[in-house]
Specification:
The protein has 587 residues and is of the alpha+beta class. Among the domains are: 78-193, Beta-Lactamase (2-Layer Sandwich), CATH 3.30.450.20; 287-372, no CATH class; 381-575, 2-Layer Sandwich (Heat Shock Protein 90). 49% of the residues lie in helices and 21% in strands. Helix 1 runs antiparallel to helix 9 (281-325), helix 11 packs antiparallel against helix 12 and helix 12 (402-420) crosses helix 13.
């Protein structure tokens, strides 16, 4: 089974098309803006994080240079040319430490690990233990000008974690010849820790320091790392010596920034999480999406309004076409916003006017044709009726019933005057019933009192106009199809009365055999094969009904009530028009 494709109106198609185009434009523009702003925010966040790492690195470098300056100060004091004694040198070193919170102790060791001079009154470790310390071995082994050792317990005192600076100097005083020695400066670890923790790359971002060997020098989560509670992505740090990159570790995308700390073998590593760096992007995207939705809704409403405005003339033209389709030709030319619509409307109006003219011509032609047919039916006299009537006249003359002959011939002449009169389609109701009475007189004499009849017409209705020959055919049908088949005496009652002020009802009632329901339901149906009940021997009821409607309108005409063995009542409804003078038909 083929499914019929549903068609859409021009208004709907225009609305959808414009809404789609504007929506696509809004979505593309929104996507471009989102991408541009996202990249800008991302780049800005990455640059900001890099600047923070650089600032911390600069601060750390400044701090290291300051420590190197302390080392140079000690180096100058230990020269023999300074003419200072060991106690004097120590006094100056203690004064230096008291002025700085970050320097824990300053100690000079000989190459065997024995303390020559120290700001600590007692050395925690013995010489052989000092000799095995990493800071001592690297300084004494000549691995560089100086060496920084990551957080560890101080070798000179039982204190918190320290960072050690060690280098080889030439130590001597007024009482001692200068010899190669190892200078140890223990720095407070908290100072470095505060320096690193003061930087905030993101909400949960952090900084840590690793050596060139990849070992962690400082990490804010060092204890958790030792416990194995958390892990650090040291593998990627080893692969990327310097610079910045993004990677995913432990289920989160993060930005890693690596810089080398000047004058040390350390690398400072900054970790910032991308979801936190891009947090300012969320309210922007929400605002952008809300604006996009608003713009799309406005686009839909605007598209519908524009489409409605453009297609309104077409809609009006469509309504005019529907009116014409329903038979209403009272239309006017549609004023549109475009020449095409106006041209189409003008052409349609001309076509409708031409159709109306042709229909008027057809109606006029059909009316003339129909009127001629009805006139022919009106003028038609049943030849059997005429033959039987004349035969009855001859029979009466032979029997010497001269009075009957006169009465029948007079009635027949009266009947002919109205039937064949030309130019008098409208007569008074009194004249119409006089015509019926003449017909009934003839039939009563022919059927030898087979039936009787009565006619009642109120005086005020006598001169009401009516089209002629609308009652006699009904009476004829009552005789031939109702009363003719009765065993007992028949009765025909004709009466007229005014109803609803502007209408008159004329009833023709008989006590004949009646009609079955199937015949009654089709008696006035034009499409039915049974278009009259006279079998061709009289003017059909359908023609009388059409004549009345043609003359007065569809609200007038015939209605029939009938029951088998009870009889039939035909009601004729005509308008109650102003009275006219009787039509005098001369013989």
């Amino acid at each position: 089974m083929r499914i019929k494709k549903k068609t859409l109106s021009i208004k709907t198609l225009m609305s959808i098309s414009m809404a789609l185009m504007i929506s696509v434009f809004v979505l593309l523009t929104g996507s471009l803006v989102d991408g541009f702003v996202s990249n800008a925010i991302k780049d800005n966040a990455m640059d900001s994080a890099s600047e923070i790492v650089t600032q911390v690195n600069n601060n750390l470098s400044t701090y290291i240079n300051d420590i190197i300056g302390v080392s140079d100060y000690v180096r100058e004091l230990s020269r023999t040319t300074s003419n200072l004694s060991a106690s004097q040198i120590q006094t100056r070193l203690e004064a230096l430490i008291s002025s700085r919170d970050d320097v824990v102790s300053i100690t000079v060791f000989d190459m065997d690990g024995n303390a020559i001079i120290s700001t600590e009154p007692t050395i925690r470790m013995a010489g052989n233990e000092i000799f095995s310390e990493l800071w001592f071995r690297r300084a004494a082994g000549g691995e560089g000008d100086f060496f920084f050792t990551g957080p560890h317990r101080s070798s000179t005192r039982n204190a918190d974690l320290v960072i050690s600076y060690s280098t080889v100097i030439s130590y001597g005083d007024i009482n001692r010849e200068a010899t190669p020695s190892v200078l140890l400066i223990d720095l407070n670890f908290n100072s470095v820790e505060e320096l690193l923790e003061s930087a905030h790359l993101s909400a949960t971002g952090y900084l840590y320091i690793i050596s060139n060997d990849g070992d962690i020098v400082y990490h804010p989560k060092e204890r958790l790392l030792e416990e194995g509670t958390v892990e650090e992505d040291l593998e990627s740090i080893r692969r990327n010596v310097f610079g910045s990159y993004t990677s995913t570790f432990d289920g989160r995308e993060r930005l890693t920034i690596i810089q080398t700390v000047e004058k040390t073998r350390w690398r400072i590593v900054g970790i910032a999480f991308m979801d936190e760096l891009l947090e300012p992007l969320k309210p922007f995207r929400i605002s952008l999406y809300v604006l996009m939705v608003i713009f799309i809704l406005i686009a839909i409403l605007l598209s519908r309004a524009i489409a409605l405005h453009i297609t309104r003339p077409l809609r009006m033209l469509e309504l005019d076409m529907r009116k014409v389709q329903d038979g209403d030709f009272s239309i006017s030319e549609t004023q549109g916003e475009s020449k095409e619509v106006e041209s189409l409307s003008h052409s349609f109006l001309l076509m409708v006017q031409r159709i109306e003219e042709l229909m008027e011509e057809v109606r006029a032609t059909e009316a003339v044709k129909r009127q001629r047919e009805l006139d022919a039916l009106q003028a038609k006299i049943n030849p059997h009726f005429l033959y039987n009537t004349l035969d009855s006249v001859v029979w009466m003359a032979e029997t010497g019933n001269n009075q009957g002959v006169v009465k029948m011939v007079t009635a027949l002449a009266s009947l002919f005057r109205i039937s064949i009169a030309k130019g008098h389609d409208t007569i008074t109701l009194k004249e119409e019933l006089a015509h019926v009475e003449s017909y009934l007189d003839i039939q009563a004499m022919r059927y030898k009192d087979k039936f009787r009849f009565s006619i009642f017409l109120p005086e005020e209705l006598e001169n009401v106009p009516t089209i002629k020959l609308i009652i006699q055919p009904i009476v004829e049908n009552s005789i031939y199809h109702g009363i003719k088949y009765l065993q007992e005496e028949g009765l025909i009652e004709i009466s007229a009365k005014a109803v609803e002020k502007d209408k008159i009802e004329i009833k023709v009632k008989d006590n004949g055999v009646g009609m079955p329901p199937d015949v009654l339901s089709t008696i006035l149906d034009k499409e039915s094969e049974r278009n009259h009940i006279s079998d061709g021997n009289g003017i059909g009821l359908i023609n009388i009904d059409e004549r009345i409607k043609l003359s007065y309108g569809d609200e007038y005409g015939l209605s029939i009530e009938s029951e088998l063995d009870e009889g039939t009542t035909v009601t004729i409804t005509i308008p109650n028009l102003p009275p006219i003078s009787p039509v005098v038909i001369k013989s």
